[in-house]
Structure formats: structure tokens, C-alpha cells
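Write out this protein's structure.
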Amino acid sequence: MKDHPRGEHGSHPEVWTGRASNRFQWLLALGGAAIVALGIELAVDSAWTSGIAALVMAVVGCIAAGLLVLFLTLAFVHVALKVDTDSLEVRCGHVGVPRRRIPLSHVAGAEFDAHVNPRQWGGWGYRWRPEKGTAVVVRRGEGVVLQLWDGHTFTITVDDAEAAVRIIRDRLRPTAAGPVR
């Protein structure tokens, strides 16, 4: 968590940031890079005499599959959560894509879940399950579960999820100026 000047919400920072990482994803990314390298190796070292169509399909298939594995694993190596006074933003991977911004006015509540498990969501990544809602899951462990006013839920695995929930709940409370928008 980064320390920022005290905001209007008491002892909470104006902007809270947290993240979660999955080091195992780097091994999968390495596997994707190896598949790309295999495709390049096939293209460079092949005699190209045993059937061009089959070899082209093998080269293109290896490179495409390797890049897909590489992109999908690097996109979900980590997730970053930023909560400011008006919204929260979830960014995945090094590029920050996929990204989702949720105004706090769309959040009905926030809960701490100590046992978010990728298996419950069908694996790592940006997930949707009709009976559970939407989630960004990069590892097993603690997470934030948001109840949105439209009846959906959004779950994010993040370190120090309890602090995030406290800050979100505090910002959802009506202030002296009136109720939350």
C-alpha cells in the first residue's frame, strides 16, 4: 500500500493501491515463449522439402499458439487495484489490460473473502460465472467482493483486501454533506 496525504475520509489515504501477483504464471509465459521459439526454429532450420503447406501450418501454429499463451499469461501475472474518492479501478498485467473502472456510486457494499480460489472461478484470469458474478483472479487467497447496485458481484484477488474493504465501506457511507450519489 502506498502512503498518500490524508484525504477527506479520516485516517484513510486519498488513494489506496494494492496488488496481487502469481509467480507461477511466469513459468507458463516461459512455456509460451518456448513454443514461439519452436516455431521460429522450424522456419529457420527446416529444409522445406517435405511439404510446404504442412510446414507453414506448423510454423504459423506454433507461433500463434505461443503468442496466445504468452499474452494470456502475462496479462494475468498480477492485478492492481486503485481506490480513490470516486471510483475503483482494476488493471491486469503489465499493460493494464483488461481494465475496469467502477464508480463508487455503483457499489452497494464490499466484503472480505479470505478464500478466493481460482478453481471456483474456472481458473486464473478475468472470469464470469452466472451464479457467482465476475472476478479477476490471479492467485488463491484473500480478495474483495463488491456488491453492485445492479445485483451483480465483482471479486478481485488483492493483498491486504481487508484494508481495501474498510476504505471502500468508509467511502460508501453518507457524509455530513448528504448521501452517497
